[in-house]
Fold this protein.
Amino acid sequence: MILALRALGVGDLVTAAPALRALRAAHPREELVLVAPGWLGPLVDLVGGVDRLVDAPGLGPLPWTGRPPRVAVNLHGRGPESHRMLTRIRPDRLLAYACAEAGHHDGPGWRAHEHEVDRWCRLLDWYGIPADHADLDLRRPAPDGVPTGVTVLHPGSKVPAKRWPPDRFVALARALAGRGHRVVLTGSADERATAARIAADAGLPADAVLAGRTDLGRLAALVAYARLVVSGDTGVAHLATGYRTASVVLFGPVSPARWGPPPGRPRHRALWVGGEDLPRWEGVGSHPTLAAIGVDEVVAAVDEVERAVRVSGAVAA
């Protein structure tokens, strides 16, 4: 049995897909168990290759009653807590980044600013398991009644600093609707009120507000069949990458060098404004790196990714 730990969220699971598939390919006859939050189950199925999901909402004692795994793989972090979580179930072997504090001296050294996809591929490569960092595509679910061909605006984030100002989403929604886009707004149930205000101020119909009305499986289907996605640095952006749906991702405070779309995919565009001349963030509202992105820049980026889609379609034809 091979057990992998990734007890995080949507974007974290998608960025770990190449590593999970590498483990599947390296151990085709062994059970591959993923330790992750149970609510990610629909997305785990779309990643593919995982035989069993063990629910773990985060780090802590693992509810493990079976025999120890032959190999445990830490795809969660650098340790020490995540290393200790795995060593408690006594695997025959632990594949993880070196962490003296956890007593694990094997494995490569951690690189703080490495892209999240490359980080886990490099870990496996170090242990002789080849991983393709471009292997990010997700299985496409059935549409299952979700609207298709829509433009998805996702204004929310669990991290307040990563939220682009709502008034800019209003202006963007108006601009895109004026260009013929059928705009919908997604988010969590807690973000529904914000999405509703954006829709009302932008002149969108009430049924354009899908925030709080889509579970993870339906959200994945919505993105898979969408025309375009515009969001902050959050899970929806990674779903767009996984489905090669045209996307514009607004970054701040973390650079896209760590979490952005992979290079060489022109239908995905990351917008980022860095520099020491930006105002200091006071801990409230959008981070200055994000607030520095204007509506006109986003509209121009939308034009770029849609042009890339048309070009790729013409080449495929």
Summary: The chain has two domains: 2-126, 151-316.
